[in-house]
Amino acid sequence: MPDFSFIPPFKAYHGENRIKKYIFTKINTLENQVGFLLWKA
After folding, report:
1. Residue in 5, 28, 24, 25 with CA at minimum distance from that of residue 15
2. Per the confidence metrics, is the pTM higher than 0.85?
């Protein structure tokens, strides 16, 4: 895989993807915790 990070749009896209993934992971974790609490209740 060649390194395209020197191309600004690619860099921005890559960063945006990382942020989306981070947010998605956070929401997923939150949902799992809420589901677990409801299941325990």
Report:
1. 5
2. no
